[in-house]
Structure prediction request, 194 residues.
Amino acid sequence: MESGQSYHIYNHANGSENIFREEDNYRYFLQQYEKYLGGVVDTYAYCLMPNHFHFLVGVKSDLSGFQNLTGLIKHPSKNPAIKAFSDFFNSYTKAYNLKYDRKGSLFMRAFQRQPILNESQWQQTFLYIHLNPIKHGFSKDYRVWKYSSWQSYQRREFPSKLNRVYYLNYFDSLEQVESSMEIKKEWLINKNLE
Prediction:
């Protein structure tokens, strides 16, 4: 993962299990995400669903302080962003396994990371992530899905760890985003009915 580059990050539970069984799991997942990745990436969008998740992130330009903090200088071949994601997933898996008395990997082997190469791809990824609960039948309305960054965009008066202004590099306004989401939402609903 390259500094200054945006990525669509996603992964799925191993097999037919769920990554999140209860409300506390979602909260803890985001807490660990901030702990391990807050200094490594800017987060623009996310959506957590029972069996998988999506993030739209930008790798921070200067990771030298991060490397010094975590001792990665001993292993210069390790990419600091990939290492941070790996540590995050391992941390969550260990806590999850302990809580539910299970063993083994919780996530599919390697998390997926798709570089965002142009403006259209960034826009589509931002919309796709927020509409994912509809796509997979977890909700009929993206605005009410509790485990999504859309909640933070709707409630801008509350503090957030999200970078809630970066999207303005790709959209004219939040109203334009909402309009685009409604169009895609209708398309998804119709597609799901087929």
Observations:
- The chain has six helices and four strands.
- Helices lie at 23-37, 64-70, 80-99, 119-135, 150-154, 174-193.
- Residues 67-77 have pLDDT under 50 and may be disordered.
- Residues 6-193 form a domain with the Alpha-Beta Plaits fold (CATH 3.30.70.1290).
